Fold these 4 entries.
Entry 1:
Amino acid sequence: MFNWIFSCLYFFLPAYFVNMAPPFAKRSGAFKFLYRPIDKGKKFKGKPILGSHKTWKGIIAGLFVGILMVFFQGWLYENFLFIQKISLIDYSKINLFWFGILISGGALCGDILFAFLKRRLGKEPGAKWLPFDQINYVIGAAIFLTPYLWNISNINNFWFQLWTTLLTLTFILHIIFNRLGYLLKIHRAKW
């Protein structure tokens, strides 16, 4: 069971980095011209479409970091037998760029979709919305990746188990790390 959990976490590592990239990009101060809201500040039925915190800088940072992580995983796969043993997919047989786009884009689209839904419910950015604030990017990545995974590996035999495991683990890990971030004054919300 530990091997399965570790393999799932390793598989999803790029999406975890994608999810962390926008807040770090915001704090970096670089590329300030990209710090523009995706929704351009527009409203839908009197409420922000997404909110000012969903920016082009975050999208580009997330895509870049996610694709970079997939290429790093590909390099690790080629050079370390241990990585080959724990990997759920054969990185030497996939298009790393395309896989990076799918996992990164899916994670980002999941986050954006749930930000849109959260605004429709009248919830402000940072307001508690369990469990969706914790797993939105897993849902997005699952939607984007599952059809691709069916064509590239034996993952189609256990895709439901993979996504169920990742939803559960991500929910738990997200709360733990956000609590730590809150205690260390890195994150504004406990959840």
Entry 2:
Amino acid sequence: MAAKQCHIMMFPWLAFGHMLPFLEFSKKLAGKGIRVSFVSTPKNIQRLPSIPPHLVHQIELVEIPLPSVEGLPENCEATVDVQLEQIQYLKKACDELHAPFEKLLHTDKPDLILAYTAATLGYLGPPAELKSCSRRTRHEHFAVPPDWFTFPSLVAATAILCTNSSSEICTVLTDLACQVDKGWLEFWKAVNLLQCEAVKSLKGEYLNLLEELYQRPVLPIGLLPPNLVENKTLNTVHSQWSTTFKWLDKQKLKSVVFVGFGSEYKMPIEEVHEMAIGLELSNLPFIWILRKPEGIDSLALLPPGFLTRISDRAMVNLGWAPQLEILAHPAIGGCLFHSGWGSIIESLGFGHPLILMPMVADQGLNAKLLMEKGMGYEVPRNEDGSFSRDMVSKSIRLVMGEQEGEPFRLKAAQMQTVFANHELHDNYINKFIQYLGNFKKAESDVHGRD
């Protein structure tokens, strides 16, 4: 049976940092003739970007209502809707989707299911480790690289994430580690392959290690870089954001720092003020996309007089912003951000040097990987995870212009040839589809002999 007749079901974790890459992958596959069912909850489906008209017949958006669980506020269906300490209840509700999802599988009978859980298990160790009484079940266990790494690595959770009891990434990992006796090993036996949003030049040693540990094919699918021309905001950017882009047009080439911390992290007012003064002290032009903390009046959001003092060299925008289009502007020269994987891909796709401040989830792991590869500089933090205005301003100046930051600027320019290479990433998609065709043929041959 031809690969183009394959049917893949996507079931990402309920975070837009997961759902959006899954959707982007769905569009890439659909554009090559693969039928895709994208499964999530009703509210999340409604908030996804529109499917391009020419792909609508290939991508089915499937809604599964999220069960009510104690502790999870009503109408909260993604991590962006909840406080950090409430993510545990969102995960519990997601776990209860098992029965309706299984029913869906029996009805639709997809050829392949792509879910987030298998990849998460990978960080817990090989199957033998999952059965071991010494398996990693505490937050602090993830503060150092695992023993089974066969090469030097910096990739581990940051200290603040390991000491924070509400840390999403450590909580998910420790919960999974504690649940392996409840069927996770049986689940792992059913896994046919590991699919990773990666390229070999960036994560080659990690991909090889996964394949060796789990004895499963590990298929990188490229980095799924967004297409600026196809981005749905492109036609509305200059009408809704004309003031911002006119301001950028007046700035010098590669002089402006883009500052943003994504939709997941709700920065406390104390951190907002410290960040604001740090940006001011850098004496560099910047554009800050700021998400207002809940319960904070807009008048009290920023330090007194801040907007007046920086008015001639900076802009602050509240809420959502057309990040991709801003990063594409030639005035942007660097990024101070949260180390979210999607933002990493967008930033390096334009060759911007990275100033890293991981806050939640897997951002600390991403930051460590970038530091290991010489692709980013992490803002120093205090032992409790806090940062100071001086740490922020010094880090910005270092990466943006000082001699010590030259390697980061050069590396970012070099990596643009990888991150923005759509032909390279398309080849990874083609190899993935080729594997699916071979897999389906082998399955068909086996069943034909039965």
Entry 3:
Amino acid sequence: FLATGIYSAVEIQHRFGYSQPTVSRLISQISGKILNIGKARSRRYTVLRDIRGLGGEFPVYKIDFDGNAHLLGTLFAVAHDEFLWSAIGGSEQLFRSLPWFLADLRPEGFVGRAFVRQLHQDLGLPPRSADWNEDHALTALARRGEDNIGNLVVGQESIERYLRMVRELTVSIRSEDIPDTYSRLSREAMEGQPSGSSAGGEQPKFTAIIEREGIVQSVLVKFSPPVSTDEGRRWADLLICEHHALEIIQHAAAFPAAQSNIIEAGGRLFLEVVRFDRTGLFGRQPVISLRAVDNEFYGFQDSWVNAANRMESDGRLSPEDAGPLRWLSVFGSLIANNDQHFGNVSLIMGDGGKRFNLAPAYDVLPMLYRPMDGSVPTRVFTPPAAIPGAPREWSSALDCACLFWERVKDDARISEGFRLICSENHSAMLRLYSGPKIIA
């Protein structure tokens, strides 16, 4: 009976017509086979569910800044396809799916699809992650989850793999070897074997550990198709644009942004971005997407501006973090970034998941102009005259957008045709300075 759901002692009494003492005695007799949820009068009972031969109990570890693992709690797979999260020294919480703080760990995007193709047979999983249920996802996390985004590792097998991985970590790529190594890794990625398993997003990419001037860094590397093609040339232009956008956010706006470098090698262009969910050689940061947080606490997925205002009003984001998030939305709208989905903003999670800090900006580029199906369609950019909900951020964002279009129109690494588009957009930014405007 307990395998069909989660029940209180009173519900068990009513179901079988037993007295309270009888139910208590029966529960005591099988205590080793059932799971207690809650305490005293709120206590309920169920049984563990076996996840594809792995059992139903999964330790969850967090990796600290030095790479050490700390037990955070235990995830139990229970009856009725639900999950019980039991934190160390904390309360228990029941979820109908995997807990929200694990949502970003599911394989997705370019690297995620390659991960699934490589390992689905070994793990006994469907060949497409789109066909996975929660048990499939948990199986992958518990068996091959040692190198996910953020700082969480699920399951005993994965934590053992993590410890072996960091002890046997290969030598980082030296700066003089980066061009040739990136060329090789890009070829391997396009053949379905990208380095790393923890990066989302559709843009082809791989992860690496590099060493420059004695400093070891974990990096995420996006790359273009061959620049000899129209598609490759446009993606190269856009990756250079992203590099400029990140530098402007960091230096002109003085907001956190991922550090980036441009490398040209092997007929491709590479955008190397320092990972902010990694620290040094082994350490990790508790990074989570705005998508996961919004899905758990709000369920709107509407706009970055509205998300910033919601989270600021209920104390989950400080004003010092909500303002930059609003600013990023305004700036993105002024540089033709029409890909402002909630997976493109990350937060750094505090203990308990009650407060968050805005992580460095990334994936900020004029995606309006991205290639489609191998071609480069003509797009007309009409910049907004205002962004609802963010009047205070408009002036600074416009200044930085004007600087962005000025820099990219003058960058000789960008194709002549796209530089002409950038020049037209720069003129459009200048026109926004004239006439009446919303005063905050």
Entry 4:
Amino acid sequence: MAKQFELQSEFEPAGDQPAAIDALVDGIENGEMWQTLLGVTGSGKTFTVANVAQRIQRPMMILAPNKTLAAQLYSEMKEFFPNNAVEYFVSYYDYYQPEAYVPSSDTFIDKDASVNEQIEQMRLSATKAMLERRDSIIVSSVSCIYGLGDKDSYLEMVLHLSVGERIDQRAVIRRLTELQYSRNDVELHRGTYRVRGDVIDIFPAESERDSVRIELFDDEVEQISYFDPLTGEVFQRVSRITIYPKTHYVTPREQLLAAVEGIKEELRLRLAELTEQNKLVEAQRLEQRTRFDIEMILELGYCNGIENYSRYLSGRKTGECPPTLFDYLPDDALLILDESHVMVPQIGAMYKGDRSRKETLVNYGFRLPSALDNRPLMFEEWERLAPQTIFVSATPAAYEQEHASSIVEQVVRPTGLVDPEIEIRPVATQVDDLLSEVNKRAEIGERVLVTTLTKRMSEDLTDYLSEHNVKVRYLHSDIDTVERVEILRDLRLGIFDVLVGINLLREGLDIREVSLVAILDADKEGFLRSERSLIQTIGRAARNLNGRAILYADRITGSMQRAIDETDRR
């Protein structure tokens, strides 16, 4: 019996939520491929989506435009569904410098990356949940359109063991090595195993803290149990177990050998081509690098940058779309695009940026042409692979409006709060006026968000407010994901009162304590002051009873007028 979604919340749907839930569920059951949930800021769109999951009982994937929002959605969904598989799938790099070549200065930049082990474990756990459970929700970033190991190879490599099965100790160890687990008899940690006589302890790569003990007797599996690797306490005995590979990028040996033959053949053709064009340096460089990689693959089963040979490893043809997380989704899954007005263009942009960098590497002999097939999905491929989809946004863009067969509005908030009141004040005195507004808010324990146009202005404004004894912090793109979440938490806790930013104080930030949003230079037309940006930024104050937005401007632009009209309508 498959587990069901069990939504746990002390709240019942209210405001426009019940009607929105019914309309979305009807659309899904009628087979509509695209729907849009136009929900104003603070109307509880996440709760609506959770109720839809509860009603339709199908696996779900939620895409968020950045890691901060993905983390916020993940924790909210985890609270709504504590007994179900809520998983997190984002890029596992803390730092990533892709391989690149700058022809003008003849500079080659080698790939450099540091992988966050915890996020790697969560990614493996996410794919395992999708393969094993119907009650799974995966919260992901745009990382899901990037190449992942081939699903069929991954499943082919899985190790199944059951009590009473005939298998000798050496065979188990050999299989674990094929799954890229390493032996460590001293310290048992994620992705390792240890051997003590006929007892093999394994710490599965996707497990957060539980290890597995396989006890053999006379070449037969006698007992399988889960235990705590720290205390050694056994807490569950099972009759069978499935061990998944340590990474998504595993390939059976015979497929590796076939891949190497394909790589050698492509190398031969490419070298002839380069020599004919009299590109001798490039030919020599390519031969040296590729032969080194081939040796590594034959000896160890992998090499640095093995993803550049992914076309051969997954047995795909030239130009075929790469295997991604979408391959792991069941056919009847539901896809939710949160903040779709940002998410949709982001999906389209990834392929183009990746392609231009790789073409340079291929042209100058750093990579074989097949490296171009190690890429994110193209927008058209994503459209083809996407299951039934709901776009969620307070400000849907043209794409969602054209594609969605129905647009479900959620304008009345369950709290009964209306959109913040908007005031327009002159630019000339904006900084001093802001200072007096900030002091008023700080006295009554409320918070303020300020958005500027440039980094320089953010820094100067932060310094100015600090000099006037205002507790202020500044949020910008150089601050890493974890620190960003900490800054937002400190703002809510009241450790400081004012947060200054540029474009990061927009979609989805759920900070109820914010009662004032100040937008400096609101009349400077551009993407930071477009109608959509203004509505999103103003909406940050919509979760507070005293919410206000002040736009500092000397004239009312078209974008401002449209944003004000839409806010008044709501």
